[in-house]
Write the structure tokens for this entry.
Amino acid sequence: MDNKSLIKSALEARKMAYAPYSNFFVGAALEATDGRIFTGCNIENISFGPTNCGERTAFFKAISEGCYDFSKIAVVGGINSGAEKLETFAFPCGVCRQVMLEFCDPLTFKVIVAKSEDDYEEYTLAEIMPHSFSPRNQKLG
Ligand code: THU
């Protein structure tokens, strides 16, 4: 899927965000190499700790359906759920980057952060998570 369409899916997913505590609404759209798209939004909790980010919601939906191979993810986020164009790029938090590393090749997996379908930046996972700790460079067990 082209970047524009993936961002559109992330913007749609953002409408489902449950963020009454931060008012920071996040949407994500994760593309699998077989073409499937898994969307996600952030889901907050009164106890704060159980809050789940939009990116991880998308990943966990995919993994829980047996999908393990991914090509890219589009992420959008900002305050005010009704905003037409987002003011800033919402980069994935460190925890989400670590989850991406578990399942994605950092040299080929793309992270797209967008303010709108036409205003976005694209990075490899390695660019936003250098010197990482991942199953690819550790021999465990
Ligand atoms: N959030 C995400 O959904 N993704 C990120 O990568 C950063 C943070 C959410 C968590 C919380 O609901 C809100 O944004 C404010 O931190």
